[in-house]
Write a structure and sequence with these properties.
About 55% of the residues lie in helices and about 15% in strands. The chain is of the alpha+beta class and about 350 residues long. An eight-stranded antiparallel sheet has the order 1-2-8-7-6-5-4-3. It starts with a helix and ends with a helix.
Length: about 350
């Protein structure tokens, strides 16, 4: 190779290899250019936990439903409607759990591939940096022998850049395909028409307008059917706060009564689960729990319990807002929203039973 041709070829390779490194760095941290395996893995684990919560709740609910039906104390259209309803919601919870698990597996595969690609990029940048340093030194000293050798070793590095960029594009497309999983909640079991009828008083469900919470409204019945001591929302709420163990469908430590500033440990209906909250707001017709570290919802999330009267009926409303600070917190909270209606149905039934005439 003529000396001048070697110099031109080497300079072209320097430009190409430096351009590849510059292009990578423009995308962000080269160690995470294909994605952060740590963050992707954390999200996968969050979906595994969401699947576990759904399965535990489904099994717990199935056992309670079987006991209720097997007891033989509840027969007729309402009993059959309840059984049909529970079979539907059980199937949908199982299906949703499997979709969370599928997404977790896909995320794990994406994290593993991202880790491999990131390692290739980091190794390539290191090799390019060393090669460019040697190339510039050879050009500076016009070392024709070294220049020819560097052209030979630089060409495979240039080819590797082409392979890396192609693999990164394919990885992005592959990841998008792998991560398309429908995790939406079916409205067929949370709409008025899909609930049992007969002896039950179906609640009204308002699905979230955004990904930050949900609202549940339970009709406690006509005011005229209530005990005279419970004809105003203030009276009903006062009883609720004084007798929370009777109303909540799961155990509480730290109550009664429910008062602003109280710390309460909720034994929520998943196996072995205790979730700490603090009462952060109280009015004559409402109170608010704010979640503390250890709760399955992110710290700072809230749920407000409100009693109100409308069109001759008394209502109990639960309004939940999630304080997400990371996408990894979302799956478990979204899973909890799936079975929340069943829990709050039971709460409404307990309160209704306490205040009817």
């Amino acid at each position: 190779m003529l000396g001048l041709a070697g110099v031109v070829a080497l300079q072209a390779l320097v430009d190409e290899l430096v351009g590849g490194a510059r292009r990578i760095r423009a995308l962000g941290d080269p160690r995470h250019v294909a994605g952060s395996p740590e963050d992707i893995g954390a999200l996968a684990r969050a979906h595994v936990e969401a699947s576990r919560v759904l399965d535990a709740t489904r099994i717990s609910g199935q056992e309670r439903a079987q006991r209720l039906i097997a007891a033989g104390d509840w027969e007729g259209p309402a009993s059959r409607a309840f059984f049909d309803y529970w079979m539907r919601i059980q199937g949908q919870m199982e299906d949703l759990s499997s979709r969370h698990e599928k997404l977790a597996n896909s995320l794990t595969e994406v994290a593993e591939e991202a880790s491999r690609l990131n390692a290739r990029v980091v190794a390539q940048i290191g090799a390019v940096d060393r090669w460019v340093s040697s190339a510039r030194d050879a050009l500076l000293h016009a070392d024709l022998v070294q220049i020819e050798l560097l052209v030979q070793t630089g060409e495979p590095l240039a080819s590797e850049w082409q392979r890396i960029f192609g693999d990164l594009e394919r990885h992005a497309d592959w990841s998008r395909e792998r991560l398309v999983v429908d995790l939406t909640l079916s409205t067929s079991v949370t709409s008025h028409g899909g609930r049992p009828t007969g002896l039950l008083n179906p609640p009204v469900i308002v699905l979230p307008k955004g990904p930050d919470g949900y609202q549940h409204v339970e009709d406690l019945g006509p005011v005229s059917s209530l005990n005279p001591d419970f004809r105003t929302p203030q009276q009903v709420m006062e009883y609720f706060q004084e007798h929370p163990q009777q109303i909540f469908p799961f155990g509480l430590r730290g109550a009664p009564p429910i008062r602003n500033g109280e710390l309460i440990d909720l034994a929520v209906p998943t196996e072995g689960s205790h979730s700490r909250v603090k009462v952060t707001s109280e009015t004559p017709t409402s109170f608010t729990f704010t979640t503390l570290p250890g709760h399955f919802d992110p710290p700072g999330s809230t749920i407000t319990f409100t009693v109100y009267r409308s069109n001759g009926h008394m209502y109990l409303k639960q309004t939940a807002h999630w304080a997400f600070t990371s996408f990894t917190q979302m799956p478990v909270s979204y899973a909890s929203a799936y079975f929340a209606p069943r829990v709050w149905d039971e709460m409404g039934g307990n309160l209704r039973q306490a205040i009817v005439a």
